[in-house]
Design a protein that fits this description.
This protein is mostly helical. It has one domain. The chain has five helices and no strands. Helix 2 (14-41) runs parallel beside helix 5 and helix 3 (49-58) packs across helix 4. The longest helix has 28 residues, at 14-41.
């Protein structure tokens, strides 16, 4: 039942457009907060081992930019498929799992 609600496809709507915009803004904000946090305390603070490996190979900015471009692109693909509720759920999870923790860490460093 829950999967039916989350993966329900809908046509273009204000909700869908707003959700994908929020998703893209959250991705951009996470990129900025991650950069500030990792530039302040070092790459070892990155919790994603794949992103940490990319940072070790290519550097902080190229790895973050690539990850955010991929995530944003996948969000747009979901939007084009009309899975707006899924994008909304992913956005909320991202705020709780990435934005809030980085904001707290950066606030503690200030």
């Amino acid at each position: 039942m829950l999967s039916r609600w989350i993966f329900n496809q809908s046509r273009e709507s204000r909700f869908g457009n707003g959700v994908v915009l929020a998703f893209l803004l959250v991705q951009a904000l996470d990129g900025v907060l991650t950069y500030v946090g990792l530039a302040s305390i070092g790459r070892a603070a990155e919790g994603n081992p794949l992103l940490g490996g990319l940072m070790a190979m290519f550097g902080l900015v190229p790895a973050l930019a690539s990850a955010k471009l991929v995530a944003g692109s996948l969000g747009i693909v979901l939007h084009l498929f009309g899975t707006h509720r899924l994008i909304a759920v992913l956005t909320a999870i991202y705020v709780g799992a990435a934005i809030v923790p980085w904001a707290v860490i950066i606030a503690m460093l200030s």
